[in-house]
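I am writing to request your help with a piece of structural work I have in hand. Here, with my thanks, is the record as I have it:
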Amino acid sequence: MSAYRSSAPIFDRTGRRIESHVLIKLPKLNRVAPDLRSRDDILRRPLVEWLLLLMLAALQFTVAVDFVIMMPLGPQLMRIFDINTPAFNLAVSAYAGAAGISGICAALFLDRFDRKIALLTLYAGFTIGTLICGLAPTYITLVLARALAGWFGGIVGGISLAMVGDLVPEARRASAMGTVMSAFSVAQVAGVPLGLYLADKLSWHVPFVALAALSAVIWVCALIRLPRVRGHLALSRAETPMRRFAAILVNGEHLRALALMAVITMGGFMIIPDLATYLVNNVGLNAGELRWVYLVGGVATLFTMNGIGRLADRFGRMRMFVIMMVSSMVAAFLITHLPVVPAAVAIAVNTFFMISMTGRFVPAITMITSSVTPAHRGGFMSINSSVAQFSSAVAAMIAGWMIHDGPNHQLVGFSLVGWAYLGWAIFGLWLGARVRTATVTQAELPVVEVA
């Protein structure tokens, strides 16, 4: 195993040329220093990087399915447990709230461990929590089980994105984020429709038990395939946990990035938790048509998220962020004001909504991840995950206050949520323009071991 340091000209999100350096430990192979490469060569992803991203995407897939499967199961769970919309939103918020608290706690020590060890430990806890969700016999037990799954699962996403920030050069980072985050789309395409089918044909317990079994298999694969990332440890362990925590929170760049995450998450999760219920009870879709809503939307975002990432790498992250935010404003207004329409129209509007909503996050997460140095990235991304989870929990509760059940369980006030999103989106555009890329010193470059 040997090491070399590479340097290649790349461009930040504003189009300005910057330098990127990464210290990499590799097996003894024929290596050519990539000092003189065209931008197309820099943007070309090597096979070892593809394998890494696919492994992280598999982890993200299970976490995404575990979280989003609750939303389309809403009508069934409300009927089985005889609960109303605010009670269902509480079950959704339990996962997010627990994830938020655990992320704050993890920020104190997460950077003191090898990224791989930390990720595997958290993912094991998530797998156990998901299994308990599948075995929950009552509504109260389900809420507690969702909190347990969220305690571990909420941090898995942050660690995965921190590893992308550590292992992928800045020039290819937006497209790498798009690849990993496309796991959400795969969850919509495969996980959610399959979960709904299993719930309809067997029981609502079955999707969670099946997901726990799949997560166990992925955990073993991750143990074998993921590289160890330890280059941040020397600098991380030189600080006390509280000093590191304070260093993250007193940095103005970090606070702006965290605020951006809060705003774009709250805006979306004021709409998403109750969307399936609205499409069924207000728009008039049945269970079969609802599966097509998630299937078509998921297939579309599976392609668009990767494409948006590539466009962000080539033309600038902020430019793509503005385009996707404006698109999301139009989509949010349409979906929250949708009357009774044919299923094809509802599917088309929802697909536009999903493309816009997921598309916002690709350039935004890239900007957020790049705003922090590698030495603090794990703790920062843990806090960032907490901010996202707290924001989604608060958003679901706010939506519960704005929406109430009308005749025949129709949702009343859902259009108000759409108007609220417009205000959040404008604020998000203002914040996004103020997030800056962090300056990385030579001593902070990550050391990566690739088997």
